Amino acid sequence: MLLAITTTHRPATDLGYLLHKHPERVHSRRQSYGVAHVFFPEVSEERCTAALFVEVDPVGLVRDRKGTSASAALMDQYVNDRPYAASSLLSAAMADTLGSAMGGRSADRPELVGVPLPLVFSLPTLPCRGGERLLRALFEPLGYEVDARQLPLDERSPSWGASPYFSVQLRTTAPLHLALTHLYVLIPVLDNSKHYWVGEDEVDKLLARGEPWLGTHPQRDLIVRRYLKHRRSLADLAIDRLVVSDGSTAEDAATADGTDAPRGDEQEHRLERSLSLNERRLEAVAAVVESLQASSVIDLGCGEGRLLKQLLPMKGVVRLTGMDVSHRSLQLARERLNLDRQPQMLQDKLSWLHSSLVYRDARFAGYDLATLVEVIEHLDEPRLGMLSRVVFEFARPKAVVVTTPNVDYNARFPALPAGRMRHPDHRFEWTRPQFQAWAQQQADRFGYAVRFEGIGDADAHLGAPTQMAVFTLQP
């Protein structure tokens, strides 16, 4: 089995430092199932390729196998695809030979560890038990371009049909250590099999390698189930731990801990209640939807569905989708809307997505308008670049509405101490010039026009309590 890693980063030979491997040597390590070799078939300042080649001993693999009953020790253990196709054996070899690189450690080039690099991963024989559709569903939300060619069962006998194996190239720009964890987890998931017994320690391994991307992956539950060989108790344990740590609401974490801690947004609601600000925000966004005659709307970060409830009865909106990273929020939104009691026409209009705004998701595309109501301030500022690409470059709706607090107006809230934000989960709150500069930068970069409005009664010096940007795609 073979994995090739290519970069055109300048100088491309930095790949050797990140992998802890000298390009002029062949690095070999004996495994219980064979030998893993790392070598560099291509080395230059412009382009460098490292290859991980694993020679598998099928007999040694069976002899080392644990957790297998005697009745299972049949011929299929000796005659299988393990020596030839990427599988959990390749992931195990990655952990052993590229462990330092996967862990984000580089003594000689520490400044490069977090730098996004142009990377191409080539896997000439990758089992995809679920086909190309599953392959894309796993990698595209993480920002990969997927080039896949399904291999025939036998090139000399086309009538035998296609095999479950693909020749795959994965292209991305990402820190190397993060991309390696993607491969480490997802290769066995695609194979839907592992060569070793899966116990509780495998949950810790999955969570360690899946940080920080797994908790918000749209195929999270499928990944967890397959990685843990469909052991339901282990999968439930892993998902419970991911739900608490995936960046969901404070309410999710409190519920999981069994505590009665107040929700983080109660503070914000108390501050804004006297201004009827939440209602005015929703009305302002709904007015934009109506003025732009948007027939399809996706609410990105829909929370408990307050905007969805406002938009659902609008006759001009024929397709409405609520998306959130939190399962709990989606559940509360369903309950808030009482869809079971709504006319069938309204039920058919609304759909739900569990996903993340910092990973590319093809399901976000095809809408007239996308809304982000009080969402961006919940992300760390360095991650806003990923959100911008997901929304403006990949989803690319005809219009986007973004609202966020105006931090200057906080001085008007007597119950809010100086320097404190309105919500404990806010990562930042911007002034009007800061928000307008950010919004204009996104508009210029992705081909949108943008206009700004204040929401709520404006102070002559501090402005309105909420600021809104309306982006419209330019022809």
TrEMBL record:
DNA-binding found in the keyword field: no
Keywords in alphabetical order: Magnesium, Metal-binding, Methyltransferase, RNA-binding, RNA-mediated gene silencing, S-adenosyl-L-methionine, Transferase
Bias-annotated ranges (Low complexity): 250-259
Pfam family, one: Hen1_L
Domain of life of the native organism: Bacteria
GO biological process: regulatory ncRNA-mediated gene silencing; RNA methylation
InterPro entries referenced in this protein's UniProt entry, alphabetically: 3'-RNA_MeTfrase_Hen1_bac, Hen1, Hen1_N, Hen1_N_sf, Methyltransf_12, SAM-dependent_MTases_sf
SUPFAM superfamilies assigned to the protein according to its UniProt record, in alphabetical order: S-adenosyl-L-methionine-dependent methyltransferases
Methyltransferase type domain span: 298-390
Disordered: annotated span: 250-269
Alphabetized GO MF terms: metal ion binding; RNA binding; small RNA 2'-O-methyltransferase activity
EC code(s) of this entry: 2.1.1.386
Catalyzed reactions: small RNA 3'-end nucleotide + S-adenosyl-L-methionine = small RNA 3'-end 2'-O-methylnucleotide + S-adenosyl-L-homocysteine + H(+)
Sequence similarity: Belongs to the methyltransferase superfamily. HEN1 family.
PANTHER family: HEN1, SMALL RNA 2'-O-METHYLTRANSFERASE
Name used for this protein in its record: Small RNA 2'-O-methyltransferase
